[in-house]
């Protein structure tokens, strides 16, 4: 475990394995903390062992046999003076067979299970009987192939002796926040004394864990502050020309009045765009809160200053929806709007590319086609990303770089507005997005009525179909969402294609459409236009209609196999109805029996239509990485702190980060050096 950088080819096998775990220095090893613990400090009696309990037993092997049925396996019987228990290996080596030969006195450790012949331990750990018992709980670490727990424990033990365990926080700060000294905390977690309760370690409520979580959160808040400071040092073109004529013209053409929340957010964005450093604002709002019109005003602010605007959405269907809306609002104001997608015909695409490069196109809407090398902007001043968490980090950066201009050796960056219809719980926003400015549309447009959610078992399908027919006879329109396009052997679910055929047969007097991701773009557009215009009364679809589709006359949403969808998807799909004046209903059609998690999801949907409450429960179920789609995007997540349960620590860390940056930047930098080593995070002076 050497500090100096060594060529990979000269590393030992153990060093290469350690590097796979991110362990390059003793300091890295010190904060490679246990994921759980084993209690090897005491022996149990066989008679007291219970199913599900992990025990350590000693006794004599009274029976040993390699059985060939129902499969080849090694079976032994262990006896002590209170009873006997079977030991079983499904995979074994000759030395293991010898280790448990008849008459051997052994110590075994493992989880008690209920077997065909009584209690048993499958693949127990075996050692000689009579050895000294452990004096502390035994740590178990996350590891990699070829790196055993004993080897890892030894390396971490050596690191604790050689690493710098001095405290990054002065005693005054530790006492104020009731924090254990750092050295004591890490030693306690690696070698917890026997008087420590295992539950406090495993639930991470022990004071040692509180110190580690606080340190991690403080480092994260300091690094986000550094990222924010770096952004404030970058330059952007101030978009501060008089925008009132265009703003007023758009307001006059709208058939609705903006909400107070929309007006507030438009003002926040306008102020950002007037500054000489790039805006990096996250606009979040529940489904139906009116983010697109806010984006339209942001675009007009940029266009009034002579800048171009690019709007990028993750799917062609959503991008096209934005294009139609923005074109309808902008064209009467004299703004030239263009559409760009990967499926466009070459001749049409070349015309659009030329118009963008020449500056004639003021607003371009598209998919990831906007970041292709062939796209060149004349003067890109504002980038708007919808459903921003669906794009990878590289994709988000690529569009911003399209607008980068070199002026006096300093790059001018475009302003950026990120929109998300996934409401982000307050603690998560504080923890992961502290480097962004966040605007929240916390008010729905007037006249919107909450969607009623009903849970319906699959056995009532015919009753539901009769209700759909009745609703359509009243002039309403209906969505029916299926989770798959074609039959899968792995998931025997009703598919969109089969459902469409079945409903056509069952409801022959209705016009029923089908849309899914495998249709060509032109076909999808044709079907959606027919549904918007009312030619199609019942639309069978996959989750391609999850975001962006706006048909006010659709008042009923049926989600088939709702138990297979995540909470965020269910909430997004429900948001496709309830966009008109009539009462709307979302039917969650499920197939019993339900798993515990599926039951929690459906109960949440039934109990609340508040997107922030749905998001809070979704975060609790899935964790921040899955919730935000960050696990695949390269964004580092917290290793030790839990955003949902450590709210108080988040607030304390944020408060101390602000204090240190103002009054003690040397302390802040020392703390960052320990926790962010290798990530090159340095505070701006």
UniProtKB/TrEMBL annotation:
Enzyme class: isomerase
Enzyme Commission designation: 5.6.2.4
Catalytic function, reaction form: Couples ATP hydrolysis with the unwinding of duplex DNA by translocating in the 3'-5' direction; ATP + H2O = ADP + phosphate + H(+)
Start and end residues of each Helicase C-terminal domain: 460-620
Gene3D superfamilies: Nucleic acid-binding proteins, P-loop containing nucleotide triphosphate hydrolases
SUPFAM superfamilies assigned to the protein according to its UniProt record, in alphabetical order: Nucleic acid-binding proteins (SSF50249), P-loop containing nucleoside triphosphate hydrolases (SSF52540)
Pfam name, any one: RecG_wedge
Domain Helicase ATP-binding: 272-441
InterPro entries tied to this protein: ATP-dep_DNA_helicase_RecG, DEAD/DEAH_box_helicase_dom, Helicase_ATP-bd, Helicase_C-like, NA-bd_OB-fold, P-loop_NTPase, RecG/Mfd, RecG_dom3_C
Swiss-Prot/TrEMBL keywords: ATP-binding, DNA damage, DNA recombination, DNA repair, DNA-binding, Helicase, Hydrolase, Isomerase, Nucleotide-binding
Domain of life: Bacteria
Transmembrane segments annotated in the record for this chain: none
MF GO annotations: helicase activity
Family the entry assigns: Belongs to the helicase family. RecG subfamily.
NCBIfam families, per the entry: PRK10917.1-1 (NF008163), PRK10917.1-3 (NF008165), PRK10917.1-4 (NF008166), PRK10917.2-2 (NF008168), recG (TIGR00643)
Function: Plays a critical role in recombination and DNA repair. Helps process Holliday junction intermediates to mature products by catalyzing branch migration. Has replication fork regression activity, unwinds stalled or blocked replication forks to make a HJ that can be resolved. Has a DNA unwinding activity characteristic of a DNA helicase with 3'-5' polarity.
Protein name: ATP-dependent DNA helicase RecG
Record lineage: Bacteria, Pseudomonadati, Pseudomonadota, Betaproteobacteria, Burkholderiales
């Amino acid at each position: 475990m050497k500090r100096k950088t060594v060529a990979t080819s000269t590393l030992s096998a153990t060093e290469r394995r350690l590097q796979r775990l991110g362990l390059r220095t003793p300091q890295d090893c010190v904060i490679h903390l246990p994921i759980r613990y084993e209690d090897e400090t005491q022996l149990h009696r066989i008679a007291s062992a219970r199913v599900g309990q992990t025990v350590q037993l000693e006794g004599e092997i009274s029976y040993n046999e390699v059985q060939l049925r129902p499969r080849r396996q090694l079976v032994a019987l262990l006896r002590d003076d209170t009873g006997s228990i079977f030991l079983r290996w499904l995979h074994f080596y000759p030395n293991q067979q010898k280790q448990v030969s008849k008459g051997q006195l052994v110590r075994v450790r493992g989880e008690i299970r209920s077997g065909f012949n009584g209690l048993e331990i499958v693949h127990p750990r075996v050692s000689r009987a009579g050895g000294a018992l452990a004096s502390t709980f035994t740590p178990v670490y996350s590891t990699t192939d070829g790196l055993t727990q004993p080897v890892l424990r030894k390396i971490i033990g050596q690191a604790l002796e050689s690493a710098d365990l001095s405290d990054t926080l002065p005693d005054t700060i530790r006492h104020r926040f009731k924090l254990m000294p750092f050295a004591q905390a890490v030693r306690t977690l690696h070698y917890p004394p026997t008087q420590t309760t295992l539950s406090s370690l495993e639930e991470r409520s022990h004071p040692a864990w509180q110190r580690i979580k606080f340190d991690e959160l403080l480092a994260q808040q300091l690094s986000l502050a550094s990222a924010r400071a770096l952004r404030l040092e970058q330059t952007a073109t101030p978009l501060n020309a008089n925008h009132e004529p265009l703003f007023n013209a758009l307001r006059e053409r709208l058939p609705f009045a903006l909400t107070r929340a929309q007006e507030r957010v438009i003002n926040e964005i306008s102020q950002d765009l007037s500054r000489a450093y790039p805006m990096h604002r996250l606009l979040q709002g529940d489904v139906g809160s009116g983010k697109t019109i806010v984006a339209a005003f942001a675009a007009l602010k940029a266009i009034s200053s002579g800048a171009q605007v690019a709007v990028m959405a993750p799917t062609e269907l959503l991008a096209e929806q934005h294009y139609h809306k923005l074109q309808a609002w902008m064209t009467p104001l004299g703004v030239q709007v263009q559409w760009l997608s990967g499926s466009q015909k070459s001749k049409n695409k070349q015309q659009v590319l030329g118009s963008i490069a020449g500056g004639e196109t003021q607003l371009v809407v598209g998919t990831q086609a906007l970041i292709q090398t062939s796209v060149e902007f004349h003067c890109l001043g504002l980038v708007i990303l919808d459903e921003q968490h669906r794009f990878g980090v590289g994709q988000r950066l690529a569009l911003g770089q399209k607008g980068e201009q070199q002026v006096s050796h300093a790059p001018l960056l475009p302003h950026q507005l990120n929109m998300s219809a996934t409401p982000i719980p307050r603690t998560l926003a504080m923890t992961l997005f502290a480097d962004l400015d966040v605007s929240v549309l916390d008010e729905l447009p007037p006249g919107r009525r909450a969607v009623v959610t009903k849970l319906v078992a699959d056995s009532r399908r015919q009753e539901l179909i009769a209700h759909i027919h009745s609703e359509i006879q009243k002039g309403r329109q209906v969505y029916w969402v299926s989770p798959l396009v074609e039959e899968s052997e792995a998931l025997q679910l009703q598919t969109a294609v089969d459902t469409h055929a079945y409903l056509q047969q069952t409801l022959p007097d209705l016009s029923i459409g089908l849309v899914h991701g495998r249709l060509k773009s032109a076909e999808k557009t044709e079907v959606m236009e027919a549904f918007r215009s009312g030619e199609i009364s019942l639309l069978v679809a996959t989750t391609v209609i999850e975001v962006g589709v706006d048909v006010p006359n659709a008042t009923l949403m049926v989600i088939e196999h709702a138990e297979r969808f995540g909470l965020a998807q269910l909430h997004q799909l429900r948001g496709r109805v309830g966009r008109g004046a009539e009462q709307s209903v979302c039917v969650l059609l499920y197939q019993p029996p339900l798993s515990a998690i599926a039951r929690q999801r459906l109960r949440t949907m039934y109990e609340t239509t508040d997107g922030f409450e749905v998001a809070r429960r979704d975060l609790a179920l899935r964790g921040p990485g899955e919730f935000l789609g960050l696990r695949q995007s390269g964004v580092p997540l917290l290793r030790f702190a839990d955003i949902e349960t450590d709210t108080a620590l988040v607030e304390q860390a944020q408060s101390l980060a602000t204090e240190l940056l103002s009054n003690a930047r040397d302390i802040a930098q020392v703390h960052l050096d320990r926790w962010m080593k290798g990530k090159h995070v340095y505070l701006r002076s």
